[in-house]
Amino acid sequence: MNVRIVWAGRNYDLAASLPEELTLPEGASVDDALQSLTERLPPNRSLPGTCLIAVSGIHLGCLQHHRNQPLKDGNELLVLWPVAGG
Fold first, then answer.
1. How far apart are CA 16 and CA 38, in angstroms?
2. Which of 14, 26, 46, 55 registers the highest number of CB atoms within 10 A of its CB?
3. Domain 2-80: what homologous superfamily?
4. Which residues neighbour 50 within 8 Å (Cβ) at sequence distance 6 or greater?
5. Which residue has the higher pLDDT, 15 or 1?
6. pTM
């Protein structure tokens, strides 16, 4: 299945080295997609735990504490980096 990836917020420039779409096996979850994206980050880079996560417009929480759910073909996964402050 294919999942569209949308990057927004501060450090979205890092997304230039990341895919805009992931091909994942059927039954893959949000955590599977996030793991795949994390593995593709440049060395010594990571996604902040405060990144907000949404799937097809439904907010799931932040990277540290989000609801994991199965993905479907055509879903959009939004990763929103924190914009300001801590």
1. 14
2. 55
3. Beta-grasp domain (3.10.20.30)
4. 62, 63, 64, 82
5. 1
6. 0.88
For 33-71, what is each residue's pLDDT tens digit? Answer: 999 998 988 888 888 888 999 999 999 999 999 999 999
How far is it, in rounded angstroms, from Cα 23 to Cα 36?
10
Task: Give the count of beta carbons closer than 10 Å to the beta carbon of residue 65.
Answer: 10
Looking at the DSSP assignment, which residues form a beta bridge with residue 21? 4
Q: Which helix (H) or strand (E) holds 59?
A: strand 58-62
* Spatial distance between the Cα atoms of 33 and 52, rounded to a whole number of angstroms: 14
Q: Which of 46, 73, 79, 44 is nearest to 61 (CA)?
A: 79
- Give domain limits for the chain: 2-80
